[in-house]
Prior knowledge:
This protein is mainly β. It has strands at 7-11, 16-20, 23-28, 32-36, 42-45, 56-64, 68-75, 78-88, 99-101, 108-110. It has a single domain (9-110), classed as Metal Binding Protein, Guanine Nucleotide Exchange Factor, Chain A.
Amino acid sequence: MPQAPRIELHPVSQRVQVHVDGKLLADSTNALELRERGYPPRHYFPREDVRMDLLNTSETTTHCPFKGSTVYFSLGDNKDIAWSYEQPIEGMEAIVGRVAFIGEGSAVQVV
């Protein structure tokens, strides 16, 4: 039996929103859900559905061998609450420029 892929992308047909400290930061009916083995599912929002005017680019960067290099964003005292793959690796082009947010247990609420 073949092993499931490490990463799967699924379009999300329902509305997905991100609220941070009561502010609506993202609202989309065009998000992608990224499922990666060993991690909780994440929603990747098109930039036009994210209040980028409220986010500041962080100095933090990371690299995932399965997705590529990231740029992080902060909102006031909420550091590195979102990230984006500006140049994802081959096979992950669908998430280029999309924005994902950290999950539960923080100031971020995905509804």
